[in-house]
Design a protein that fits this description.
This protein has one domain: Muramoyl-pentapeptide Carboxypeptidase, domain 2 (2-Layer Sandwich), CATH 3.30.1380.10. The chain contains 5 helices and 6 strands. Strand 3 and strand 4 form a beta hairpin.
């Protein structure tokens, strides 16, 4: 199922942890609606703005998958409002700087471990915070700083 021109439901729900352990990572209809909003509000516009393909490392995570990967207890991934991304063909720091300076309606953008960019939208009807952070550390022990 396509969520937008370049992003599929399969891509936004795939989890290596779920595949390896047999955890069900099937989203609800509400989560699919949020994933669709995420693709249309952030992922597609970011792809167009940077003019490069986007690889999604982690999109939706069920509560069980989120716990298994050491995600935050209130992670936007669990409601389908976040994706950890890698922009192919552009240095990640450059992509991060361009995205956070843009007028894209992100709730949160985090440059994590200099290895991926977390992009999140606000819940429906809530004004995006436009919070830009950098993160270092590892699952269960992240350290966040304003960018």
């Amino acid at each position: 199922m396509q969520l937008s021109q370049h992003f599929s439901l399969e891509e936004l729900t795939f989890s290596q942890v779920a595949a390896r352990t047999g955890i069900d990572n099937t989203p609800s209809d509400e989560v699919v609606a949020n994933l669709t909003r995420l693709c249309n509000l952030l992922l597609e516009p970011a792809r167009a703005m940077l003019e490069v393909p986007v690889h999604v490392d982690s999109g939706y995570r069920s509560t069980v998958v989120n716990a298994a990967v050491g995600g935050a207890r209130d992670s936007a991934h669990m409601s389908g409002r976040a994706a950890d991304t890698v922009f192919l063909g552009i240095p990640l720091e450059e992509a991060f700087d361009k995205l956070r300076a843009s007028d894209l309606p992100f709730d949160q953008i985090i440059f994590e471990c200099r290895a991926w960019i977390h992009l999140a939208i606000a819940p429906e009807g809530v004004q995006p915070r436009r919070e830009a952070l950098t993160a270092t550390g590892h699952a269960g022990a992240w350290h966040y700083q304003p960018a």
